[in-house]
């Protein structure tokens, strides 16, 4: 048993892994993209969202997680996701892809509108059970990430930090980024006490993330 603050999420138990596999092996489909809070679907399912800086790899992670290569559009152009995109996961869950924050290749007013919608969603969606905050493993936590962490703290929304693109760093780089993110997470009351390392290219962490999502209870 480790006493390390914010340990890495371990491999799921066989039962949890199978629950995650079954959930994601079922139907997954794009439901809708919304541009205002009024357009959100009914809050009648377990909902988890993916947030992160522009070009952190949210769409690629959703595609890898669901095993559907073209489900979420991936792009090398920061700011491609311009709406709050809802994906129906079976009859029980919504996966939500939020617009990237930070730099975006779009007019300032458009970016401001995306950011306002994202913040309104994070602060005001009652059935949102967990936010997965994606951080590029090559760069660690940036000040703009901490702004979102502060918002999640104020909104009492549990968030779990997910390091992306881990195939692009070596073992020494992993230790450095883990030290940095653990120090930052210790400042935030809403931070879930495990970190997940993922790669959309190699599949690292996907079974664990599926099991985590499948295990989030509707009343959590």
TrEMBL record:
Which prosthetic group or cofactor does it need? Mg(2+)
| One Pfam match | MMR_HSR1
Family of this protein: Belongs to the TRAFAC class TrmE-Era-EngA-EngB-Septin-like GTPase superfamily. EngB GTPase family.
What GO molecular function terms would the record report? GTP binding; metal ion binding
What is the protein named? Probable GTP-binding protein EngB
Which residue ranges does the record assign to the EngB-type G domain? 44-219
Record carries keyword ATP-binding: no
Q: What does this protein do?
A: Necessary for normal cell division and for the maintenance of normal septation.
| Matching Gene3D superfamilies | P-loop containing nucleotide triphosphate hydrolases
**Which organism's genome codes for this protein?**
Meinhardsimonia xiamenensis
What keywords were assigned to this record? Cell cycle, Cell division, GTP-binding, Magnesium, Metal-binding, Nucleotide-binding, Septation
| CDD domains linked | YihA_EngB
Q: Which GO terms describe its biological process?
A: division septum assembly
Q: Which NCBIfam families match?
A: GTPase_YsxC
Name a GO CC annotation attached to this entry.
Answer: cytosol
Q: Which domain of life is it from?
A: Bacteria
């Amino acid at each position: 048993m480790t006493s390390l603050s914010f340990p890495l999420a371990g491999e799921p138990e066989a039962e949890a892994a199978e629950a995650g596999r079954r959930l994601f092996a079922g139907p997954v489909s794009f439901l809708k993209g919304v541009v205002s809070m009024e357009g959100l679907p009914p809050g009648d399912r377990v909902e988890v969202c993916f947030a992160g800086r522009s070009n952190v790899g949210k769409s690629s992670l959703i595609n890898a997680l669901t095993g559907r290569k073209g489900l979420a559009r991936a792009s090398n152009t920061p700011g491609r996701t311009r709406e709050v995109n809802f994906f129906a996961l079976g009859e029980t869950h919504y996966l939500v892809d939020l617009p990237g924050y930070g730099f975006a290749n779009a007019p300032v007013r458009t970016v401001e509108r995306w950011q306002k919608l994202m913040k309104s969603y994070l602060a005001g969606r009652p059935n949102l059970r967990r936010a997965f905050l994606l951080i590029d493993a090559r760069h660690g936590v940036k000040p703009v990430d901490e702004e979102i962490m502060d918002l999640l703290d104020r909104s009492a929304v549990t968030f779990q930090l997910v390091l992306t693109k881990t195939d692009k760093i070596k073992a020494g780089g992993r230790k450095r980024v883990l030290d940095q993110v653990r120090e930052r997470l210790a400042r935030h009351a809403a931070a879930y006490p495990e970190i997940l390392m993922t790669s959309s290219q190699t599949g690292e962490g996907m079974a664990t993330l599926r099991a985590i999502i499948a295990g989030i209870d509707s009343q959590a």
